[in-house]
Design goal:
The structure is a homodimer.
Chain A lengths: L1 H13 L3 E2 L14 H4 L8 E10 L15 E10 L5 H11 L9 E5 L2 E3 L4 E10 L2 E12 L2 E13 H9 L8 E3 L2 E2 H19 L2 H20 L3 H20 L5 H28 L26 E9 L4 H21 L7 E6 L2 E9 L6 E9 H4 L8 H10 L7 E5 L2 E10 L4 H14 L20 E8 L2 E2 L3 E2 L2 E2 L3 E3 L8 E3 L6 H7 L6 H18 L10 H8 L5 E7 L9 H12 L2 E4 L5 E10 L4 H27 L3 H7 L4 E3 L3 E2 H18 L4 H13 L7 H5 L6 H9 L4 H10 L13 H20 L13 H14 L8 H14 L6 H21 L4 H7 L6 H14 L3 H16 L16 H16 L7 H8 L3 H10 L7 H18 L11
Parallel strand pairs in A: 1-2
Antiparallel strand pairs in A: 2-3, 3-8, 4-6, 5-6, 6-7, 7-8, 9-10, 11-13, 11-17, 12-13, 14-16, 15-16, 17-18, 19-20, 21-22, 23-25, 24-25, 26-27
Helix pairs in contact in A: 1-3, 6-7, 6-8, 7-8, 9-12, 14-15, 16-17, 19-20, 19-24, 19-26, 20-23, 20-24, 22-23, 23-24, 24-25, 24-26, 24-27, 25-27, 25-29, 26-27, 28-29, 30-34, 31-33, 31-34
C-alpha cells in the first residue's frame, strides 16, 4: 500500500503538485486540511497532493468490519484552477497505480458533495472501478460560504478500497501494507483501541468540556485575526463533536447548536483567511484561466441544403440531465431556428453522458431576403397644409437614409402613417447557425449548475468541446473559451481518443464505428437484449418493468452498454431479498436476476461502458457486491441481536429537524397521531391492538444498523426485524406499511393500522415543517413534502373507510402533537398545507387524464379524497345526461345571482308568487328527502332532479331583485337555500356552461 | 524539498522500512509518534520511516528567524533491531539525497539523548555535514522506563537544515519547497500565525484547563487498558504544556507537577503497550539478533617471538572515551598478560574515534611449563600410627590421580601437610591471547554504556570488528557475536573500505597508507602544524594553549585531521568576542584565529576527517557559522532592546530545581546570601554599593535570549548587557565574576563583590541540593556540585581577605535562605556538604603535588582554605627543621596518651613532681604568650618550641596513669591542655612519625 501512496505522490508531483503532510490534528477528510479548505479560497493558484489519514469515529468497528475503519487513508489532490483535462489526468494516475484501465470498467458516476457545516459544496462524481467507488472527484464551487473563483478540482482517492481491489483481499486487515507487514499487523491494535475510545470509553463530559474550550479558543483566534490557529480549533471542535456523536451523547438540541457554532466559525475562518491573503497581496499570484476565444470574423458560404450537426461535448452528465439536456437543446434549437428565417427540416437530439447531439435536417443555404415596413410619423403630421413634408417627416426620412419623396402611406390598425418598406438581406446559414449555437451553449442550464475553468459558462458539468458542421462545412462558433470545430472525442482510452468528423451526415454511424451509441433508445434496447440473453444462461430473467427506472439510469451512465453477468454466493440469498436488490440497485446499478417465479437468483447483470476485459470486470463487480453483502450481512446479524425496543431507543440520537426535535420525538408523535385518527374511525378489536403496538414501535428500524446504512430499507427492515422479534404479523405489516408509499405510484398500505400510521407519519411531516416554515420551494424539497402529500392523498383514496380522516382532522391531530411539544403551529400554516395536499390530489387526477372542469368541481370535496373520488365517479356517470346538465345549469344560475353572503334563510310567507311558492314547495320536499343535507352527488341528483323545472320557472317569472327589501331578501334566501343544499356535493360552477 | 522527502522515503522503503504517516496530533518530535515510542518496546521487529512535522512552540519566531520554526520537518527512521551497519545505511541515504559525501566532511559527533519525561534515553551522535548538524542518530536504550531489548536505531533528519545546506539558502523561507513554490510561500503564513498563537494569543486559562482534561482522559484510558488513546492524550498534555510554556505561563511548581504527571503517564502507557503486545502474542514476531559465534576449536602454533596486534573496531567513540579506552585496554592487556605466564615485551595502545589498537611486543610463542604444589591433609592426619596412609590421604591421592606413594611432605607456614607437585604445561601464545583478548572486549566499559545488536556486549558505542594478529598469524577470538580476524575497516568512503592486514608489524604505517593516523600525538601535531600554517596565511595564529581542551577533543573526533581555513564576515566582530568564540568552540569545534595581540580575526580553522573537497567543506562550514552568528546577532540585538531588570523578570519562568523553586528564587537567595557574607567581612563603601546593585541583578542574563541559547555565556553576557544598560563597570564586573570559576583551573573572581556573589551562588547550590538529597553520585553530578565545591575552595583560597567566610558560615547563610523558603535543611546535610567541599580542597592540594601527610595535617583548617593554605606554607617551611620535628613528635605523644574525652582542666596543686611542675610552668607561659590560643602554626611553633624538652622529660619521669585517680586526672588534664593549645594550628598526628 505504501508503494501505491508513493506512486500517487510521484505522479502528481510530476504534474506540478506540491506535497504537504497530513494535518496534525484529526480531520474527518482530506478536504479539511487547510491545504484544501483554505487554499481553494481566493484567486491564488494551488496544486497540492497529500495523504490524509481521515478519522471518522462513527466508522469505528473495532477493526472487525472488513471495509470500515475509524481511520482510513485518503489521498487528496487539489488542482486550482481546473486544468481543463482533470479527468484525463486522473486516469493517468490510475495507470501510475498499475491499473490496466483498458481492461477495467472505469466510470464517472454522478455524486455531488455538500458540507453545510463548511458552507461548502461541489459537483462531480464518484469514480467506479468495476463498480467499486475508488475516488471522489469534485469541482469545488463554494467553501466557507464563499463562491470559489477559480474553481478547484478536488480528487480524493479511498486508498484502502483501491488496495483491497488491486490486491484481491476482502478485509482491510489483509492488505499488504509494506513488504511482510499487513495492514492489520501495522494498524490493527490502534484500530481496535481507538474504536473502543470512540464507541465505549471516551469520557462524555470531558469531551463536552473540550468542545467548549475549542470553540472558545477558535472564537478568540478569529477575534485576533488569526485564521490558521482558528481553523485548528474548528477542526478540534469538529472531531470532538464526532467523538461525542459516536458515543451517542449528542441530543438533537446539542447537535443543532454545535453545528450552528461550527458552521459559523468555519465561515468566519474562511472569510478571514481570504481577507488575510488579500492583505498579504496574494503571495502565490493569480490563477490564470482560459481567455474567451475571438468571435468568428467571417462565415463560409454554402450552397444547397445540408444537415446540421451540433455536438456539445461534456464531462459525464448526471443521468437525469442527459435526457433533460437533449430535450432542452432540441427545444432551444427549434425555437431559435424558428425565430430566424432559415429554412430547415426536422430537428432531433440524442445524448449520452458525454455528449448532446442535435441535428437539423435540410437546412437551407441562407435566409431568404425579407421586407420590413418602417413606420414614420402620422400622415396627418407628415405634411403641412401645403403638402410639404413637415420637419417630422423629413427627419424620419433622413434617419432612414432615404429621400422624403420615397415615403409612402402606411395603414396601421386604421391609422395612417408615412413610412417605407425596407429589404433585409437574408444571412447565410453558417452565420445564422453560428449565433444560434453559441447562444444554446451559453444558455445551457441544469437543475444544479457549476463553474469550471471556463470564464463564463455554467452547466451541470463542464462543457469541453463543440462540433458544429453544416454538411461538411464547419460552422464557426465562439462561446466563452470554447470554439466549435469538427473534432470530437470518443472513448478516452481509444487508440485515437480525438477524431475529426467528416460530415454531419451519418454522424451517429460514425460514432458507432468508434463504439459509441448516441441513441438512448438503442442503448436501452441493447441493455435489454444482452441482459435478457445473459440472464437466460443461468435460467433467469430480468424484470425490466420493475427495473425500468434503473434501466433508464443505466442507459444514461454509459456510451456503449456492455452487459456482464456476475454472480454472488447463494448464501446471501438467506438475507431478505429487498436488502439484496436494494444494494444492487442503489449502490451498484446492477440488474437483479430472478427465476420464473420472481425469486432472486444469485446473479446480476452489470452494465460496463465500452470495451473491457469481461472477466476482470466481472470479478471486480462480484468482489464489490460481495463486500457490500458482507457488510449487509454484518448489519443483519448485528441487528438481530438487538430488540426492536432497543433499536427504538437509538432514535433519540437521530436528529430529525432542528426545531422539531429528534426522530424519537417524531416517532412518538406519529404513534399518538395514528391513535387519534383511529378514534376518528372508531377502530377497535385486533386492529386497534395492532395499531397500539405498532405505534409503540413506530420507525424503530431507523435505529438499526441496516437502515442507517440503507435508508430506503426503512419499513422493510422493520417488518423483518419485528417478525423475528416475535411481533405479530399484523404489527410487522403495519410497521412496514408505515413507510408506504415510498414514491409516486408505489403501493399504499394494505392494512388499516398501517394506513393510519402512514397517514400519521405524513401529517406530522407536513404539519411540522409547514409550521416551522420549511415549506418546499420550486427546486428544493429536502424533506420530500410533495411526496408526503401525494402519499396522504394516495392512502386516503385507497382507503375509503378512512374517510373520516379528513385533511383538516389529520393535520389538526398532527398539529396538536406538535403544539404539545411547545412549537407554535399557525392557523395559516395548516390552511396552507391542506391546500398543498389538495393540489397534489388535483395533480393526480389531471395526470390520470381527468377533465379539468370535473376535477375543479370535485376539488372542494378533496378534504376527503375518497369522497371526492366517488363524487367524480358519479359525476362522470351523469355528465352526459341532459337532465343532469339542466340541473347543473339551473344550479349555476342560482349560484350566479345569489351573493356569496346571502343567508340561506327566508320567510316563506313573503313568497306569494306561484313560481316562488312552487320552488319553495319542491325545495322543501327535496330537502326533507335528503335529510337536510345530501350524502353524495348521486343522492342529490336523484332527489334534486325535480328542481330543474321550478328553478327555471322561478327565473322566468320572478324578479329576484325586487325593490321591496324584505321580498328581495326572501327570494334570495330561497335561492340561497337551494345553493347551500347543492354546494356540499359539487362545485357546480366549475362544470362550466 | 518534497523531492528530498520522497528520495528518503524511497531509500528507506527499499531497505525494508514501512512508511507511516505523521501523527494526527501535535508532537514535538518524530520520536513521539507511536510508530517510534511505542514500537521500540518489546521484542517485535520494526522498521519504519516517516515524515514528522514537529511542533515546538518554544521555537516560534513569527517566521523571522532564519533557522527556527515552530513546526519543522523531521524525517524519522527506526531500525529494530540494529541491523549491524546502520551508519553505512545512513550514509547511503545521504547519497540518495544527492549529497556527494566523498566531497563533503561527514562526521558522527557524540550526542546523547535523554528524555526524562519519557523515561527514555539513548546514545549516539549528531551527524555533521561540513559542520552542520543534519541528523540525530541514536541507539535507543530505554523508553517508558523500560530497557529496550532489542535496541532500536533511531535516525532523525532535520530536513529544513539539510535543504538549506543543499540549496545554499540562508533563510528557511527561501528553501525551494516544490517547483515554483518556496517554503515561505507554502508555510509562511502558518508559521507567523502559529507563532502568534504560541507566543502571544493562546489563552492561558483555557490551555490550563485543556491540560487537565487531557491528563484526566489519559488516566481513564490507562485504567481502561487502552494504551493507544492514552498515548494520544499524553501527547496532547505535552503539547499543551509546551504552549503554556511558550506563553510564559508555567510556574516552577506547575512545571514540576506537570512533568511529574506526564512522566508517570508516559511510563504507564509504555508498560501497558508492552503488556498488550504480549497479550496479543506479539503479532509481528520476534526480532532476530546475531547468535554468539562458536569458541575457537583449535589454535595455531607459532614459533619465535612476535608482535601482537589487537584492534577493537567501533563506531565513533565519544572523544573522551577514545583516550580513556586506550588506557583501559592497555592496563587490561598488561594485567591479563601478567597473570599469564606468557613472556612479552612492552604493551602500548593507540586510539582513534573508530578503533583502539593495542600492541604487545615480543610475545613468546608459548607459556613455559610451571610446577604447582597441591596440598592434601595435614601430615598428622595422613598416616596412621603404623605409617599407613589414612583414608584422607588415600582419597586425596585418588582425587589427584596419583598413587598415595607419590605424596610427599609439604611445609606451609610451619605446618606440615602431605601433597604433591604438579607440572602445568604452558599453553601456546595464540591460545593464551585468544582468551585474554576476548575478556578485554567483554569487559570494555565506559562512563555511559549501551547495547546494540550484539547479544551480550555493552560499551559506549557498538564494537563492530576485531583484528587480532600475532605477527602474521590470526589469533582466533570469539566474544559474543564477534570473531576476530585480519580484516579491518578504513575510511567508510574509501574505494576499498575493508582491507586485510598482512601483519602486526608496521600496522600503524599500514593504516597511514590508508589515510588513518592512529597515534593521537601525531594527529595533534598535524592539527597544530596545519592550523598554524593556515592561520599564518591570514596573518593570524591559533592560541593552542588557550584552546588545548578543544584541540584534545578535535584530535579524538577524526582519524585523519584535515585542517581547513574558513572565514566569516568581519561585521560579526562587532559582537562580543566571547560570543563568537563560544559558538565556534561549543557548537562547531572550530579553532578561533587571532592576531598577534590576541584579537579575534574573521577566520577559523575547522578540522575535517580525511579527504574531501576543501572548497566544498569550507563553504559548508562557513555557511553554518554564518547561520549561527546570524542567530547570535539576532539574540544580541533582541537582548539589547531589553533592560536587565526585564530580563531578570524572566527568571521566574525558568525552573531551577523542582523543590528549590525557580531560577528567580535562586537568584534572590544568592543576592541575600552575598549580602550576609559581606557583613561577615564588614564590606563597606563602594564595594558594598556595588554588591548591593549586583545582588539585585544577580543572574539576570539567564533571562536573555543569548544565554538561553548559549548557557556558557552566562556572566559574560551579564557584563556586556549591564555595561550597555549603564550599570557601573564594577557592577558589570561583579555580575561577570558571579559565574567564575566555570571549571577547574578557570579564573576566579577578581573583585570582592564578585567573589562574594560567586560564593553565594555556590553555597546556595550546595546547601540547597544537599538539603533536598540531590547529592552527586559516582557518575552523576547533574548540577555540577563538584565543580561548585571546587569553586568555593578556589575563590576562598584566592581571597584570603574573605577568611571570615568559613565553609560553615557560608553554608549556614545559604541554608538560612533556603529554610526561609520553607525547605528543611538537616544539620547532617550541612555537615556532609562541608565535608564534600573539604574533600575538593584536599584533592586540589594533592593534585598540586602536596605531601599527603601535610595535607591531612592542615585539613582541619580547611573551613577557611586560605588559612589552611597559610598553615601548609608554614608547615612546609618548618617540616625539615629538627626542632619542629621534635616538637611534633612530642605533641603526637601527648595526643596518643590522652583519651579524646579527657578534659583540658586540671588542678596544678596536685602536680608535685618536678617534671610535671616544669611542664605546667612552661605551658602556662606559652599559653600566655599565645594569648590563650595560637593565631597560626608559625606563632605556635615560635612559642611552643620550648615545650619539647619539658614534654619529653614529663614522659620520661612521670607515670601518667597514676593509680590515684585525682592525680591521674590532673596529669591527663595537663597534657590535654597542651593538646588543645596545639590542636587549632595543625592535625599533628597526620604528620606521621
Amino acid at each position: 500500500m505504501q508503494d501505491a501512496l508513493a506512486a500517487l505522490t510521484r505522479y502528481w508531483t510530476e504534474r506540478g503538485c506540491m506535497v504537504v503532510q497530513p494535518f496534525n490534528t484529526e480531520v474527518g477528510a482530506g478536504t479539511l486540511n487547510p491545504a484544501t479548505v483554505l487554499r481553494v479560497l481566493g484567486p491564488e493558484p494551488w496544486r497540492v497532493a497529500y495523504v490524509e489519514p481521515s478519522v471518522r469515529p462513527d466508522d469505528a468497528r473495532y477493526g472487525e468490519n472488513p471495509n470500515r475503519l475509524q481511520t482510513h487513508t485518503q489521498f487528496q489532490v487539489i488542482l486550482k484552477p481546473d486544468p481543463g483535462d482533470p479527468q484525463e489526468l486522473y486516469l493517468g494516475s490510475l495507470r501510475a497505480l498499475g491499473i490496466d484501465i483498458g481492461a477495467h470498467d472505469v466510470r464517472f458516476v454522478e455524486d455531488n458533495w455538500a458540507s453545510p457545516a463548511l458552507g461548502a459544496w461541489g459537483l462531480g462524481w464518484e469514480v467506479w472501478l468495476d463498480g467499486l467507488e475508488i475516488t471522489q472527484f469534485t469541482y469545488f464551487q463554494q467553501a466557507g460560504g464563499m463562491t470559489l473563483d477559480p474553481v478547484s478540482v478536488e480528487i480524493t482517492y479511498g486508498v484502502e478500497r483501491i488496495m483491497m481491489a488491486l490486491q484481491g483481499v476482502s478485509h482491510f486487515k489483509d492488505i499488504a501494507y509494506a513488504p511482510g507487514i499487513s495492514y492489520g499487523e501495522a494498524f490493527g491494535q490502534a484500530e481496535y483501541e481507538m474504536s473502543r475510545y470512540y464507541l465505549d470509553d471516551a469520557d462524555v463530559e470531558a469531551n463536552k468540556r473540550l468542545f467548549e474550550e475549542y470553540a472558545g479558543e477558535a472564537r478568540r483566534m478569529l477575534d485576533a485575526r488569526l485564521p490558521v490557529p482558528a481553523h485548528v480549533y474548528v477542526l478540534r471542535c469538529s472531531h470532538t463533536f464526532n467523538v461525542l456523536d459516536s458515543r451517542g451523547a449528542v441530543s438533537t438540541t446539542e447537535r443543532a447548536r454545535a453545528f450552528g457554532r461550527m458552521r459559523g466559525l468555519a465561515r468566519e475562518v474562511a472569510q478571514l483567511w481570504a481577507e488575510r491573503r488579500t492583505e498579504l497581496g496574494h503571495p502565490l499570484g493569480f490563477a490564470v484561466v482560459p481567455e474567451p476565444v475571438a468571435a468568428p470574423a467571417s462565415f463560409p458560404v454554402v450552397e444547397g441544403t445540408h444537415r446540421l450537426l451540433f455536438e456539445i461535448g461534456t464531462e459525464e452528465l448526471p443521468p437525469a440531465e442527459v435526457t433533460r439536456t437533449a430535450d432542452a437543446v432540441r427545444r432551444a434549437l427549434e425555437t431559435k431556428l424558428g425565430a430566424s428565417r432559415l429554412g430547415h427540416g426536422a430537428v432531433s437530439t440524442y445524448a449520452t453522458p458525454r455528449r448532446v447531439i442535435a441535428f437539423a435536417e435540410d437546412v437551407e443555404a441562407a435566409e431568404p431576403d425579407a421586407e420590413r415596413v418602417v413606420r414614420g410619423p402620422r400622415l396627418s403630421a407628415a405634411y403641412d397644409a401645403d403638402g410639404h413634408a413637415t420637419k417630422a417627416a423629413a427627419g424620419f426620412a433622413r434617419g432612414q437614409g432615404v429621400d422624403v419623396s420615397e415615403l409612402r402611406t402606411i395603414d396601421v390598425d386604421g391609422v395612417e402613417y408615412v413610412g417605407l418598406t425596407k429589404t433585409d438581406t437574408g444571412r447565410g446559414a453558417v452565420e445564422v447557425l453560428s449565433g444560434i449555437l453559441g447562444e444554446i451553449v451559453a444558455e445551457l442550464r441544469a437543475d444544479k449548475n457549476m463553474r469550471w475553468s471556463d470564464p463564463k459558462l455554467s452547466f451541470t458539468r463542464p462543457v469541453r468541446w463543440l462540433v458544429a458542421l453544416l454538411g461538411e462545412t464547419e460552422v464557426p462558433v465562439a462561446v466563452s473559451a470554447l470554439a466549435a470545430g469538427r473534432t470530437t472525442r470518443v472513448h478516452r482510452l481509444a487508440s485515437t481518443p480525438v477524431v475529426d468528423v467528416p460530415s454531419a451526415d451519418g454522424y451517429l454511424d460514425f460514432l458507432r464505428s468508434h463504439g459509441i451509441e448516441a441513441d438512448p433508445a438503442r442503448r436501452r434496447e441493447r441493455i435489454v437484449t444482452d441482459a435478457t440473453r445473459l440472464a437466460a444462461t443461468v435460467g433467469g430473467r430480468v424484470d425490466f418493468d420493475g427495473e425500468s427506472a434503473l434501466v433508464d439510469e443505466v442507459v444514461n451512465l454509459v456510451e456503449e452498454p456492455t452487459a456482464i453477468l456476475g454472480s454472488f454466493a447463494s448464501d446471501y440469498l438467506e438475507l431478505p431479498s429487498q436488502i439484496l436488490t436494494t444494494v444492487m440497485r442503489k449502490h451498484q446499478r446492477y440488474l437483479p436476476v430472478r427465476d420464473a417465479g420472481g425469486a432472486l437468483l444469485p446473479h446480476f447483470v452489470a452494465v460496463a461502458n465500452g470495451e473491457c476485459d469481461h472477466d476482470v470486470v466481472r470479478a471486480g463487480n462480484e468482489a464489490v457486491l460481495r463486500a457490500r453483502y458482507e457488510d449487509a450481512a454484518f448489519f443483519w446479524r448485528a441487528d438481530l441481536q438487538t430488540a426492536p425496543a432497543a433499536m427504538k431507543a437509538e432514535l433519540g440520537k437521530l436528529a430529525f429537524e432542528d426545531r422539531l426535535g429528534s426522530m424519537a420525538q417524531r416517532a412518538d408523535r406519529i404513534g399518538r397521531v395514528a391513535l387519534a385518527l383511529a378514534s376518528e374511525v372508531s377502530l377497535d378489536g385486533d386492529d386497534l391492538a395492532t395499531l397500539r403496538r405498532a405505534a409503540e414501535l413506530a420507525k424503530f428500524d431507523l435505529g438499526s444498523q441496516m437502515v442507517v446504512e440503507l435508508t430506503s430499507l426503512a419499513g422493510t427492515m422493520a417488518r423483518e426485524y419485528a417478525r423475528r422479534a416475535g411481533e405479530t404479523e399484523a404489527v410487522a405489516q403495519a410497521l412496514y406499511d408505515l413507510e408506504l408509499p415510498r414514491a409516486a405510484g408505489d403501493r399504499v398500505p394494505a392494512t388499516v393500522p398501517g394506513a393510519l400510521l402512514a397517514l400519521a407519519d405524513r401529517f406530522d411531516l407536513l404539519a411540522g415543517l409547514f409550521a416551522v416554515g420549511a415549506t418546499p420551494t420550486g427546486s428544493s424539497d429536502p424533506f420530500g413534502l410533495r411526496r408526503a402529500a401525494a402519499g396522504v392523498v394516495a392512502i386516503l383514496r385507497e382507503h375509503p373507510s378512512l374517510r373520516a380522516v379528513t385533511l383538516s382532522r389529520g393535520l389538526g391531530a398532527a398539529a396538536g402533537q406538535i403544539v404539545a411539544q411547545g412549537i407554535d403551529v399557525p392557523e395559516e400554516a395548516l390552511a396552507e398545507v391542506a391546500d398543498f395536499v389538495v393540489r397534489r390530489y388535483e395533480q393526480q387526477l389531471l395526470d390520470a387524464g381527468a377533465d379539468y372542469r370535473q376535477v375543479a368541481a370535485v376539488l372542494p370535496l378533496a378534504q376527503a379524497p375518497a369522497a371526492a373520488d366517488e363524487t367524480l365517479a358519479q359525476l362522470r356517470e351523469r355528465i352526459d345526461d341532459p337532465a343532469f346538465a339542466e340541473l347543473a345549469t339551473a344550479l349555476q344560475r342560482v349560484r350566479r345571482i345569489v351573493p356569496e353572503d346571502a343567508p340561506s334563510t327566508y320567510d316563506p310567507a313573503l313568497l306569494t308568487e306561484p313560481a316562488e311558492q312552487a320552488l319553495h314547495g319542491e325545495l322543501t320536499k327535496v330537502s326533507e328527502t335528503l335529510g337536510g343535507s345530501p350524502r353524495s352527488l348521486a343522492d342529490f341528483t336523484e332527489a334534486a332532479g325535480v328542481l330543474t323545472v321550478p328553478v327555471n320557472r322561478f327565473f322566468d317569472e320572478i324578479l329576484v331583485m325586487a325593490e321591496e327589501p324584505e321580498l328581495r331578501a326572501a327570494r334570495l334566501g330561497l335561492l340561497a337555500t337551494l345553493r347551500d343544499l347543492a354546494a356540499p356535493v359539487l362545485d357546480w360552477q366549475s362544470l362550466g356552461s
